[in-house]
Every structure is written in C-alpha cells, then in structure tokens.
Amino acid sequence: MTKSISMDFLLDYGTPEHVIAHCVAVADVAKKIAKALNEKGFSLDLRLIETAGLLHDMARIDDKHWEVSADFLQSRGFEEEASIIRVHMHHHFPTDPGLTTETDMVCLADRLVLEDQYVGLHVRMDYIIKKAANQPEIIQRIQSNKILVGEYISNLESILGEPIEAIVQTP
Fold it and tell me: Of 52, 53, 83, 122, which is least packed with CB atoms within 10 Å of its CB?
C-alpha cells in the first residue's frame, strides 16, 4: 500500500486532521527507528511500518478504535497492517530486542509521539496518566508499562549506539 492510498483511507474514513497529523508523525518516527535498526542488521519491512503507522488511529474517534481500524483494513485485504493495528493499544514489547518486529516499531512510535510531535516516553506516558485520573488500577498498569517500554528503549539504544531521540530528530 502506498502512502497516498493510506491517506485516501484516512480521508475516506473521515479521520480528523489532528489525528491524521498524529498518524503521520507516528509513521515517520517508526520508520526512522526501523531504518536505523536495518542498518544494524535487522530486516524490518519499512513499507509495512509506514502504512500501519499511518493507519493505526484512523478510527480514533470510535470506541475500541484499534478494533474498528483493524476490521476496516482486514475487510479490504490488508491483513498485516490490520494485525499490527489490532494490538497497538495493548502491545507487549519483547524482552530480547533482537526479536523486534514491525509491530514493535509502530507501537513504540505511538508511545513516543504526542499528537503530531515526538516527545519521548516520559512526556507521552505522563500525558496518558493524567487522562486516567482517578483510576488507580489503570494508572498502575500504565506506570508498569512505562518501565517495561523504557527498558526496551534502552536495549534498542544499545544496539543502535545512540539515543532514539537523536535518530528521530535526524531529517
């Protein structure tokens, strides 16, 4: 799927402009990290990462948007993209960064981007924690996840030899 077809899906679905901007930023961040990993010997599919990143929140205005988006794409034959999108809200990263997949790249980027800007893990997770105010069980789960994602990022940075922030901010 090309970027223009992805954009057509977003527009046809009626995805709001600010959500499209978020999707573009997530796709860009995911693709940059994946490209850097590929330069270190990984074989990540950059086209799949870009497409899934562009479409991951296409139905964000709907309840269970990850399911709605995935079903929409699956009904149109985009199985790989749908499988990534279906898990992006509840994804668990591998403890071994050598097992990194396209799904990991899209899900990681979504945890590093706030609206249309790369902000890093702490700012993004703190934003989500604020949204979960007065829901201690959800806040605890987010905080635990933040620690695990932080460990995953540290492991990736060891492989990459530089901070993800430096990779993402490269034009």
Answer: 122
